[in-house]
Amino acid sequence: MKRYLVSLALMLLLSGVAAATTATSNDPHALVKNNSERMLSILREQHKQLKKKPELIYELVNEIVIPNFDFTRMSRWVLGKYWRQATPEQRQRFENEFRMLLVKTYATSLLEFIDDEFKYPPLRMKPGAKRVTVRTDVIRSGAAPVRVEYRLFNGKDGWKAYDVLVEGISLVANYRSSFAEEIRQRGLDKLIARLAEHNNKVVAN
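User: That's the sequence. What structure does it adopt?
Assistant: C-alpha cells below.
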C-alpha cells in the first residue's frame, strides 16, 4: 500500500505540474487540471508503445515535467537540517540524484493509472496567495476514491509543485523520514552514493 500511494503521488505530481504557457499558468487549479488531462491523454494514446518501451516514459517526463518542479525546495525540505549542514556541492549532487530517483523509480507506474477517473473540486484561494493546496479525487473502479492534495508555491518562475499528499501521506515527509535515519547512520555522502548507484542500475535495466 505504501508503494502504491507513493507511486500514485508521484504519478499525479508528474502529470499535474507539466509546463503551461497559456493563461492557466496563473491559475493553479486550471494548471493542475488541464495538464493532468494532457499527460493522461498522451499516456492513453501511446499506451501500447509505452508498454513495449517503458523507457519512453522517461523522455516524456523529462520533456514535459522536469522544468516545472521546484526540486531545490523539495530537496531542502527532504534533507531538513542536513541541507543547512551540506556544502553547495553536496546539495547539488543530492538534488540531481533525488530528481532522478523520483523519475526513474516511479515513471513506469504512470501506466497503472490511465484508466482512472480524476475529479477536481473547486479551489479556495485568497487573492495574492503564494502557497495553495489543489485537491484532486482519483476514482478507481471497485475501490474508494483517493484524495490527492498538491502543494504549490508561486515564485518568480510561476506556480511549481513542491509536495503531494495522498490520503494525508506526504511524498516529501515520506522520504525525509527514511533519508534522515540513513544520514544519521552513514552520512550524507553515503546516501548520495547509494542513490547514484540505484539510479544507474535502473537506467541500465
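The first helix runs from residue 2 to 16.
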